[in-house]
Amino acid sequence: MNEVILNVDVSPFVDALAAVVGEANVLTQLDDVAAYVQDWTSAYHSSALAVVRPKTTSEVSKIVGLCSAENIAIVPQGGRTGLCGGGVPINGQPSVVVSLTRMNAVRSFDVAGRTVVAEAGTVLEALHAEAENNDLIFPLVFGAKGSCTIGGNLATNAGGSNVLRYGNARELCLGVEAVMPDGTVINTMTGLRKDNTGYDLKDLLIGAEGTLGIITAAVFKLFPMPTARSTAFLSVGELDDAITVLNRLQDHTGGCVEAFEFMPKPAVDVICKVFPDIRTPLDTPAENGILVEVASSRPHDAKVMEDGSICLELEVMELLSVLMEEGVVLDAMLAQSEQQRADLWKMRESILEAITEAGPAYHLDISLPLSQIACFVGEMDAKMAKLGFQPLTVGHLGDGNLHYALSAAEGRDWEELPLDTAKEMVFTLLTELNGSFSAEHGIGQSKLDVMRKLKEATQIAVMRQIKTVLDPKNIMNPGKLIPTE
Ligand SMILES: Cc1cc2nc3c(=O)[nH]c(=O)nc-3n(C[C@H](O)[C@H](O)[C@H](O)COP(=O)(O)OP(=O)(O)OC[C@H]3O[C@@H](n4cnc5c(N)ncnc54)[C@H](O)[C@@H]3O)c2cc1C
């Protein structure tokens, strides 16, 4: 039995869980539980009375009912790719992990209405494949797509590379089915795009990081499959130039920019060092690199031209030539094949693993108004260098989101660097520039201190009131998202 210390015999409780989901789906042995109580970053290790793996919403409801009766904490869990320690129990509190990964059915697909209903444990990439089989796309995309689940995506209101065009998980979702902390099941899955019938409970659960209930299924919007794409890696002189490129591309293509990712040289260097099969796309490495993707489903854009290229590619090339003449773009490489496009995306999506592999780093997930990004990066990079840090930045620049990681500069010892001073500097400037300290990864356990310090106290108080009303026993993912008083 697991190491959680209880002064009572938990076997009857475990037996009751097994009666709901079957013995094979209740894990209690340390070795079996180990993987479920450690988060992706390895920063959080804990323990659990049991890991339960339900197959149906009714089973989830019964599990929650059993935990509620015994005042045992419940930790909803998907693919465990969260980066803030939200999906693992907190230490010292008897908890049950409810892993949704067996609830992975696509329940229905409405091709005409362009919606899909999928269960919470569906892996994001599996939903991509399902949509593509129907000549449509589900546009939420990021590096963890092969492991993260749509339940986790909603619980964290995940973003990724395509937010610029399609919005984040919240904007893609038309309704959820969820089990509330007392075991009640709510179903807001009408799939309607207009439904003004009171408080939007779906929006309360999205981004709640499992603190208000367990999402068991959701209905999502789908979009036309692009038939033409143009993917390029650009070198721009200054960050402000990148914003000019973004806006000119949007104007030129009628808003077809799907991704606009900032990849400056230090980050690309780390990727190439850790993954030697990945090479920098430009002969002269870009100080300020941008991975840009434009896509369209308009037949006109997919027309093949005399030289074999497609119309959209030509349009993008035309604009890039103008921008190069103007000195806004310094160099550009356009993907000439699906393989080259895949290579560019592999480079982008390897960054987190590369930084993690390269050594200790402190990861910030921040957002800023587009007009303030250049100011933030210029000022902060200089300050961090003085303190002995090497900032490794990448970002979904198109939507103002930077992943700003602080690593040790060459020859500096991480343990001796003034991390608290650095964090203070970052948060002070962020506040001055109207930025956010958590753009897309959420709060979990790791950002509770910043939340307490920087989030408006009155907003935290309202969050506490909501939590208390819906979860009076504080059993639904306790110790996450809302700082203690
Ligand atoms: C390489 C890499 C790249 C990443 N890139 C991005 C990115 O670009 N954008 C981005 O937004 N995130 C990114 N992430 C973070 C992470 O992938 C997302 O937060 C993801 O949405 C989490 O999904 P999950 O299924 O793994 O959830 P988990 O990690 O299992 O859980 C995350 C949180 O959601 C809660 N939860 C999980 N399932 C449910 C449910 N069914 N009901 C209620 N609560 C639930 C958990 O309790 C926890 O609080 C990245 C992570 C990695 C490892």
Question: Could you characterize what this model shows?
Answer:
Keywords: FAD, Flavoprotein. InterPro entries: FAD-bd_oxidored_4_C, FAD-bd_PCMH, FAD-bd_PCMH-like_sf, FAD-bd_PCMH_sub1, FAD-bd_PCMH_sub2, FAD-linked_Oxase-like_C, FAD-oxidored/transferase_4, Oxid_FAD_bind_N. Pfam families: FAD-oxidase_C, FAD_binding_4. Belongs to the FAD-binding oxidoreductase/transferase type 4 family. Residues 44-225 form the FAD-binding PCMH-type domain. The structure is a single chain. The protein is of the alpha+beta class and 485 residues long. It has four domains: 11-99, 2-Layer Sandwich (Uridine Diphospho-n-acetylenolpyruvylglucosamine Reductase, domain 2), CATH 3.30.43.10; 106-224, 2-Layer Sandwich (Uridine Diphospho-n-acetylenolpyruvylglucosamine Reductase, domain 3); 228-349, Alpha-Beta Plaits (2-Layer Sandwich); 359-432, Alpha-Beta Plaits (2-Layer Sandwich), CATH 3.30.70. It contains 17 helices and 18 strands. It has helices at residues 11-21, 30-33, 57-70, 124-133, 150-155, 163-166, 169-172, 201-205, 239-253, 265-274, 311-325, 338-349, 351-358, 373-387, 419-432, 448-454, 457-470; strands at residues 26-27, 50-52, 73-77, 95-99, 106-110, 115-119, 136-137, 173-179, 185-187, 214-221, 223-224, 228-236, 257-264, 288-296, 329-334, 361-367, 389-396, 401-408. The strands form five sheets. It has a five-stranded antiparallel sheet. The protein has a four-stranded mixed sheet with strand order 1-2-4-3. Strands 13-14-12-15 form a four-stranded antiparallel sheet, with helices on both faces. The longest helix has 15 residues, at 239-253. The relative contact order is 0.11. The chain binds flavin-adenine dinucleotide. Flavin-adenine dinucleotide is lined by residues 40, 75-83, 86-87, 100, 120, 142-144, 148-149, 151-153, 155-156, 158-160, 209-210, 214-215, 352, 440-441, 444, 477, 480.
